[in-house]
Amino acid sequence: MVDDDLTKKADATPRASALIESLRDIGYTLATALADVVDNSITAGASAVHVYADTLTDDPSIAIIDNGGGMDKEELIEALRLGSRNPLEARASSDLGRFGLGLKSASFSQCRRLTVLSRRNGVLAGARWDLDEVAETDRWEISLINDASHIPQADFLSGDGTLVLWEKLDRVDGGYRHDAHKRAQNINHALSGAERHLRIVFHRFMERGGKGKLSISINDRVLNPIDPFASKHPATQVDPEETLSLAHGVVRIRSFTVPHHKALHRDEWDELGGPEGHLRSQGFYIYRGDRLIISGSWLGLARQTELTKLCRIRVDIPNTMDADWKIDVKKASAQLPPAVRERLKKIIERFVQTSKRTYRRRGQKLTDETRVPMWKRVLKDGAIVYQPNTDHPALVEFEERLPEAQRREFRNCILLVGAGLPMDSLHADMLGHAETVKVSDAEVDALEQALHSMVPHLLEQGISKAGVSTMLKTTDMFRNEWERVEPVLARILQQRDSE
Predict the structure, then answer these.
(1) Which of 10, 132, 455, 476 lies 20 to 30 Å from 362, alpha-carbon distance?
(2) Which pTM does this prediction carry?
(3) What is the C-alpha separation between 95 and 320, in angstroms, rounded?
(4) Rounded distance between C-alpha atoms, residue 432 and residue 426, angstroms
(5) Are 284 and 294 in contact (CB under 8 A)?
(6) What is the domain count for the chain?
């Protein structure tokens, strides 16, 4: 028998004013909100997206304009409906949407007024959400626009395509609503931060040739893509692609070891590492339909260390696997399915050794006794200790010229320099930006003195003149001043021949 109480129904329609305000706090930034709108442009077949920010007027605005296929009136109304698509619906492989919330939730996170104009086959349609009106009426109603002449930036929509206009930028103005200068500064600063996000999130679309290529510009400045793998650099190591076939699609995995910072120009290295540096940029880069979702995280499968900071693993998934990966509304986070997690564990264990070997090979050169290092790396009581090499020819020769009474004091001074090595500071600096930690340049006079001591020593070891030149040229303190060192070395070698 059915309980009569269970057959009764009550209206639980959410209050428009409350729910629509809640949607503003999903967690978007300006960067992720702009990316969500660009997703719609790509899905609409756009080849160009222009972002225009008007920050100098009393009512600043941001417009995103594309040259995609556009929408008619009915499609536009549907596009502005919250939850316009069921996330379980089948989608085209090129469709970057999922929940039917992106355009609205992304826009509401930045502004209180969202206007969309769209033209298809020359016919213009327009509609607007105004959150202040919703707060007054408490109704899920949008305003239809018949005359677009008064809409800011509408002139930029010259052909088929779509204009998304954000006004009442209460989440972007930094609270400086009564200070136009600071408000403009804050909006421009936020746009500057969003620029890198767009360059890396859509880099594969921007790198394409022919059909499917995407151009993105901000205030008429075209953005260049950032390839987080430096895949076209000759020093980048690329592993063969691996595939994992699952019930809802195929996961494609490829590992990259990016070049050491000494193989790149400083600007290239900094751009590759981003504002947080290479230590934070290592790990997985997960793409959904060529669109970057997650960048620089091991997702709990490994630790971010200095020795693995060159490791980057690209993971490609289709949009048919959204539920398996628990893709969120912002398309900025995901969770590894168990089968993928196990596969990636094995890949990490094998792959990260490549990056470690890159650094260890360089470390070996520093401790190779045949290269007469200034510092020795020794194992003492289970710990690695760095000590000045008191047997270095330059130090030995100078010590021998000292009076006997001062030799012990000289050696003690050298050992004190080693004992005073600021390991805590070095460790902290190396964990942050190791590539910015450098040795100080030696004066030419000091280098010349070192050469006069080292060259005879190396020749006595049976090393040829050419070998001596090659060895010294690969030593940091000589390499940095090689143009000045080379003639001095040639002079010393000539003197040896004449003796």
Answers:
(1) 455
(2) 0.72
(3) 10
(4) 10
(5) yes
(6) 4
